[in-house]
Structure formats: structure tokens, C-alpha cells
Amino acid sequence: QARPRDMNDLRGQVAVITGSTSGIGLALARAVAARGGDVVLNGLGDPSEIERNRAEMEAACGVRVRYHAADMRHGEEVADMVAYAKHELGRLDILVNNAGVSMAKPFEDVSDEDWESDFDLKVWGAIRLIRAVVPEMRKVGGGRIINMGSTGSLGAEPGFGAYTAMKHGLTGLSKTIAAEFGVDGILCNTV
Questions:
Q1: Distance between CA 161 and CA 12 in Å, rounded?
Q2: What is the pLDDT of residues 88-120, one digit of tens each?
Q3: Residues with Cβ within 8 Å of residue 51, at least 6 apart in sequence
Q4: N or C: which end of the chain has fewer CB within 10 A?
Q5: What is the pLDDT of residues 16-34, one digit of tens each?
Q6: What angle (nearest 5°) sits at the alpha carbon of residue 107, between those of residues 102 and 109?
Q7: Cα distance between residue 168 and residue 190, in whole Å
């Protein structure tokens, strides 16, 4: 009988983590690398700082760490990042949709452009990436998709209407992906 896989051992696994050039995303990338997983970093920031973090992670953990600057609002860049991950690291097992910023404005001050930009980044970006990774995850027998939520995924507070709507949207997206692709061994959660 096969032993259950040690979930702390990510050797041989490849993770794409959006918004991983700073903050929570960078901490997640470091955690994956520390457990032996290869990582594709993604996000904005000072190129020299991104390269320093990339090289440091790679050297400290003995894994392959790459960087791709895809903007989640542009489908062709998202597709290119997935192709890059596969070309550079051979496969794709883990996707963390973490890109995004918190928009704090009273509801009546949020413009149509604000709504569209926020939705495009947080929700459409996740949809684009999931569409691109599902075929790759099927090829390797499954995978893990994690959509980063927050307390805004569960409730609401004044001044965070757009943020809360997007986080609720990601929660619904996670449930849909889990229901549709669980049969393929692709698990999806909101954290």
C-alpha cells in the first residue's frame, strides 16, 4: 500500500505564485522553495530587488526560481507565463492567485474604471490563469489552485466595497473550480 504524500515535501513540484515579489506572495514563494518546490515569481517591483530575492531563494534552497513579469490583466501575458513555467521548469503543479491590491474608497467614490480595473486584476486574472493551468495540471495527474482571500471573502466593512466584491467572487470561483475539476485531481481552495 502506498504511503500518503508528505505535504511538506514539495520536491519535484512547480508553483506559479502571482504577486510574489513582496509581502504575502514572497513569503509563500519562500515557503514553497524551503520545502523543495521550484517557483515562478510574478509581480511588480524594483527589478534589482526581485532578482536579489530570486537568486537568494534559489541558492538557499537548492531549487529553481524564475521570474515572469506577466500582468494578470492581459491574457496573452498570462498564457506566456504558463508556457514559460512549463518550458523552464517542466511542469505545473501549484497555482497561487495572490496578485492584487486593496482599494479603500467609499462605495459612491468608486468609479466604473476602478471597478473594472480591480475586477480585471483580481477575478479575471485568476480566471485567465486557471484556464491556462488546468490543461497542464491534467497532464501531470492533478494539482492545487489556491485563491488568496481575506476577511473580505467572508464579510464586509465600509469603504472596501470593490475589494469585498472581488474577494467574494474569488470564493465563488474556487468552489466552481473545485466542483468541476476535482475529478481530474485538481483541488481548489480560497485561503
A1: 40
A2: 999 999 999 999 877 788 888 989 998 888 888
A3: 67
A4: N
A5: 999 999 999 999 999 999 9
A6: 90
A7: 10
Tell me the residue length of the chain. Answer: 191
Over residues 131-167, the pLDDT tens digits come to 999 999 999 999 999 999 876 677 777 877 787 888 8
Q: Write down the pTM of the prediction.
A: 0.91
What is the rounded distance in angstroms from the CA atom of residue 25 to the CA atom of residue 31?
A: 10
pLDDT of 2 higher than 80: no
Known catalytic residues? 163
From residue 149, how far is each of 18, 44, 110 by CA, in Å? 13, 20, 21
State residue 141 phi and psi, 5-degree precision.
Answer: 90, 15
Mean per-residue pLDDT over the chain, rounded:
91
Instruction: Say what angle helices 125-139 and 75-89 make with each other, to 10 degrees.
Output: 30
Helices (H), ranges, 63-160: 75-89, 112-119, 125-139
Residues 82, 84: Cα–Cα separation, whole Å: 5
Q: What are the Cα distances from residue 176, in Å, to 52, 94, 169, 181? A: 38, 17, 11, 8
